[in-house]
Predict the 3D structure of the following.
Amino acid sequence: MPNVYVNAKKDLTTTSATTLYTAPALTTGVIKSILVSEDSGNADTITVTITNTSDAVFSMFKTKAVTANNTVELLTAPLVVQTGEIIKVTAATANRLHVVASVLEIT
């Protein structure tokens, strides 16, 4: 199977950690972009973590501010996600944030 671009989309309807992207077996994901959009007219924050294959959690963004009715690009450079690693996103408040990640999957 050739390398392919995919996107991962989540509407953060809870304040629980939500899986945005998991790198499939035998695949390296290169995340090119993570966009966060606030659509309720209220400022909020988002936390983004990566979990490795031994379940250790690492913070990438801790309570990153997103202003009301605005979109924020979180990445300034591509992020490599190895097989089995998981990107999770957590909103401070439910029903305010949408997240879209653009990923190049290399097999």
Q: What stands out?
A: The CA atoms of residues 15 and 93 lie 6 Å apart. The chain has a mean pLDDT of 96. The two ends are 7 Å apart (CA to CA). The longest strand covers residues 28-38.
